[in-house]
Design a protein that fits this description.
Length: 91
């Protein structure tokens, strides 16, 4: 049976992640509140941010920035966009 979660991004019951996406308390919180679909969407968004903004992921300031952007993205707040990115539906 597939485990379901009330996804904070999509506000509906969706398939849950199979394991915490990061260690510690934050990982447990994400496991309980974020669907597999929302996490995949975040990973794609994060990759665009890293590539477009040429972020150095080993820098603590970059990791903090990405954590802040992740929270905004998952809460449907105004998250940063990759400047050159055009969603497939807009092409």
């Amino acid at each position: 049976m597939t485990k379901m979660v009330l996804c904070r991004k999509y506000q509906q019951e969706l398939e849950a992640l199979s394991q915490p996406p990061m260690p510690g308390e934050k990982g447990q919180e994400l496991l309980a509140t974020v669907s597999k679909k929302a996490w995949q969407a975040w990973l794609e968004h994060q990759t665009r941010l890293i590539n477009e903004k040429r972020l150095k992921v080993f820098e603590p300031s970059t990791r903090q920035y990405l954590l802040e952007q992740m929270e905004k993205f998952l809460d449907n707040d105004e998250a940063d966009q990759a400047e050159g990115y055009v969603p497939p539906s807009d092409r």
